[in-house]
Specification:
By secondary structure, this protein is mainly alpha-helical. About 70% of the residues lie in helices and about 5% in strands. The protein is elongated.
Length: about 260
């Protein structure tokens, strides 16, 4: 039998359609049973019996879960409906769409980066092995070559942000890692969309590489407070220089409008 619900849960469920209620119940069932990605859900007939719903309602509930990326259907021998893990690229894309009309600013993004990234650095000091430290060094090297044109400038900017995504991927806290990677993704999109990456600000590029190299040294040495301070300074400096770049772009835009 389906699990009992509280009065507040019942009131909330009353605002959902039947397929939505079934979809939510299936999600709860998966959690309670501890089913992992790849586990096959019971048959359509079994779901109809469990939830006392018609075939059309069950199928629509499954379609809702597929749209959310939580199940995947396969036809043919061995087919069925399987629990599915939402991929990070899909989660990032959905969140990016949520903020599409929010007009995020450089200040919005750096407010969070200044808070989260120094703490990430401190938590990783002395805990990374040589293979992980080498991956960070490789990420730094990716953004080191000088840019030959606009395409190279965009690629180099993306590479400089990739360092922070790689670092975030080493966190034991999956939520912290995801949020920091998402912020780096959003900053990259905002920067390119507003033309802030071209031409590259030499000071932003050079100081960014220097801070990242210092950070790797402090992480290797296990200096948590020093790592936190380096990344705090890096975020403060990057924010300042990005704002300067933004002001230049706005000034150029206003000048072009005035002379057009």
């Amino acid at each position: 039998m389906p699990p009992a619900t509280t009065r507040s849960e019942s009131a909330s469920a009353g605002r959902l359609s039947r397929p939505q209620r079934v979809a939510e119940a299936i999600k709860q069932w998966v959690m309670e049973e501890g089913w992992q990605p790849g586990h096959r859900l019971p048959s359509e007939t079994e779901l109809m019996a469990r939830f006392a719903m018609a075939k059309g309602t069950i199928r629509e509930a499954i379609r809702l879960l597929e749209a959310q990326g939580l199940v995947r259907s396969r036809t043919g021998p061995g087919g069925g409906v399987f629990v599915h893990r939402v991929s990070e690229p899909r989660a990032v894309a959905l969140l990016s769409n949520y903020f599409y009309f929010a007009d995020l600013s450089i200040d919005d993004i750096y407010q969070l980066r200044r808070t989260l990234e120094p703490e990430l650095a401190a938590s990783l000091a002395g805990r990374l092995d040589e293979e992980q430290l080498a991956r960070l060094q490789a990420a730094i090297a990716e953004s080191a070559p000088p840019a030959a044109g606009a395409h190279d400038e965009a690629a180099r900017h993306a590479a400089s942000l990739r360092f922070h995504a790689v670092l975030a991927g080493m966190s034991d806290n999956p939520l912290l890692g995801f949020v920091i990677r998402f912020l780096a993704e959003m900053l990259g999109e905002v920067t390119v969309a507003r033309g802030l990456h071209s031409p590259t600000d030499p000071e932003l590029w050079e100081t960014g590489l220097a801070y990242q190299s210092r950070l790797v040294s402090e992480l290797r040495a296990g200096n948590a407070e020093a790592a936190r301070q380096v990344l705090h300074e890096h975020m403060e400096n990057a924010h300042r220089l990005m704002k300067r770049q933004e002001a230049k772009v706005i000034k150029r835009f206003l000048h072009d409008r005035g002379t057009g």
